[in-house]
Design brief:
224 residues; alpha/beta; 7-stranded mixed β-sheet; two-stranded antiparallel sheet; 6 helices; binds 5-O-phosphono-beta-D-ribofuranosylamine
Length: 224
């Protein structure tokens, strides 16, 4: 059974699109139960509309505090049947109460190699610092910003002429590859938490007629 996920967005939603595409290709055992944005004009909501996905805007400014805003999100996600939460370019911190509503099932993508460059300007901070390698991180969410256990990271080169935009664009292309993979592991119950460490369970023994991925080199890419 496909895992019903809520995807939280604040902006363009290109990571949401990557998830939609993988689901439509049949590569990802999840279904999008709800796209939720805290911003009225977020293009992520438009993407949801185009693909006829349930979507809702819950402006955070309508609520007196973070706790009330999060309670509104919890209600909307539960009503839609969401069992896991993917923060895909969602620019708000969430509360412990929200995390406890979906225990072990809230993940986030961050455009830097954590623990370096947390915060809202990851690519710009990395470019300004002059790193030679940057990348992205998908991690479980805890109550500290960009801090929870790492599920998967991917690296890209960074060049002296990079700024936040050029480096961010290179990182974003990577995000679109690794986020659907992390969601697939979550959806198929392949992630085990050992303290701060995340172990990805081996792929199940292939059924007759399936290609055994472990014996394919170079490895098959997502969607094949
Ligand atoms: C991405 O880099 C994401 O990691 C972030 O915001 C950016 C926007 O992504 N925090 P998207 O196009 O809205 O998915």
């Amino acid at each position: 059974m496909a895992l019903p996920i809520a995807v939280l967005v604040s902006g363009s939603g290109s990571n949401l699109q990557a998830l939609i595409d993988r689901i439509e290709q049949g590569a990802l055992d999840a279904r999008i139960a709800l796209v939720l944005s805290n911003k009225e004009g977020a293009y992520g909501l438009e993407r949801a509309r185009k693909h006829r996905l349930p979507h809702v805007c819950i402006p955070h400014a309508d609520y007196p505090d973070r706790a009330e805003f999060d309670r509104a999100m919890i209600r909307a996600i539960r009503k839609a049947g969401g069992e896991a939460v993917v923060m895909a370019g969602f620019m708000r911190m969430i509360t412990g109460e929200f995390l406890r509503a979906f225990p072990g099932k809230v993940i986030n993508i961050h455009p830097a190699l954590l623990p370096s460059f947390p915060g809202v300007h990851g690519p710009r901070d990395a470019a300004d610092y002059g790193v030679a390698i940057s990348g992205c991180t998908v991690h479980f969410v805890d109550e500290i910003m960009d801090h929870g256990p790492v599920i998967i990271q991917a690296a890209v080169p960074a060049y002296p002429e990079d700024d936040g935009q050029t480096l961010g664009g290179r990182i974003l292309a990577c995000e679109h590859r690794v986020l659907p993979q992390a969601v697939q592991w979550l959806a198929t119950d392949r992630l085990r938490l050992e303290g701060r460490k995340v172990r990805v369970q081996p792929a199940p023994v292939p059924k007759a007629g399936e290609v055994p991925g472990a014996l394919v080199n170079p490895p098959l890419e997502l969607g094949f």
